[in-house]
């Protein structure tokens, strides 16, 4: 099989001391022309030589991570560990995918989002902003999660998603927990303020979104 890219002599060294080499397109395909420089990988195995998968911009792929199919990783995104990005998935912006995470289908992870652990993001799901999806979470489509930007005292992103155990988990700043814990935290931290009203409105919408009574 004719290779679609090669490693160049250009490299960067990440915070772990791992040398990442810039790639160069060696034959034209969907996302690159012959001679185009791409992003950075630790080794050839990080990016499939078949299909239209591509790493570009200042994106890094390293460890045992793999990008394949028609997937793209670009911008300042990082894919590391044993993570896989495949299908028609997109990872871009400052997003990170790590651990044993899988991003596939038509899913997109972008902004400052972080997908890690054994998390799965698939279908037409979008994970973005400051959202963290971790553990055994499985986000299959846009009906399985939702997000709210620029609310609260620090204009944070609040992200809610359904776990494999059919529980709604919420990430907001350094908070991570279920919706009942989030309600208690809001009351404890913002009682009597405009921020309590904002978060209560978000909580009500999340309950409607996921069909939670009360």
TrEMBL record:
<protein>
    <recommendedName>
        <fullName>Polymer-forming cytoskeletal</fullName>
    </recommendedName>
</protein>
<dbReference type="Pfam" id="PF18836">
    <property type="entry name" value="B_solenoid_ydck"/>
</dbReference>
<dbReference type="InterPro" id="IPR011004">
    <property type="entry name" value="Trimer_LpxA-like_sf"/>
</dbReference>
<dbReference type="InterPro" id="IPR040831">
    <property type="entry name" value="B_solenoid_ydck_rpt"/>
</dbReference>
């Amino acid at each position: 099989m004719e290779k679609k890219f090669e490693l160049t002599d250009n490299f960067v060294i990440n915070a772990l001391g791992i040398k990442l080499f810039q790639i160069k397109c060696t034959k034209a395909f969907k996302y690159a022309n012959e001679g185009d420089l791409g992003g950075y990988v630790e080794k050839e195995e990080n990016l499939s030589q078949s299909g239209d998968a591509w790493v570009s911009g200042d994106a890094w792929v390293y460890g045992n991570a793999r990008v394949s199919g028609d997937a793209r990783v670009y911008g300042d995104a990082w894919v590391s560990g044993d993570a896989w990005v495949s299908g028609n998935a997109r990872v871009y912006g400052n997003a990170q995918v790590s651990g044993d995470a899988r991003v596939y289908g038509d899913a997109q992870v972008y902004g400052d989002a972080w997908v890690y652990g054994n998390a799965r993001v698939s279908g037409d799901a979008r994970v973005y902003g400051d959202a963290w999806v971790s553990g055994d979470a499985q986000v299959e489509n846009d009906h399985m999660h939702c997000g709210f930007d620029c609310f609260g005292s620090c204009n944070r992103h609040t992200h809610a998603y359904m776990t494999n155990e059919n529980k709604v988990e919420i990430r907001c700043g350094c908070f991570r927990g279920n919706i009942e814990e989030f309600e208690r935290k809001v009351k404890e931290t913002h009682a009597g303020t405009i921020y309590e009203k904002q978060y209560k409105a978000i909580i009500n919408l999340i309950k409607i979104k996921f069909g939670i009574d009360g």
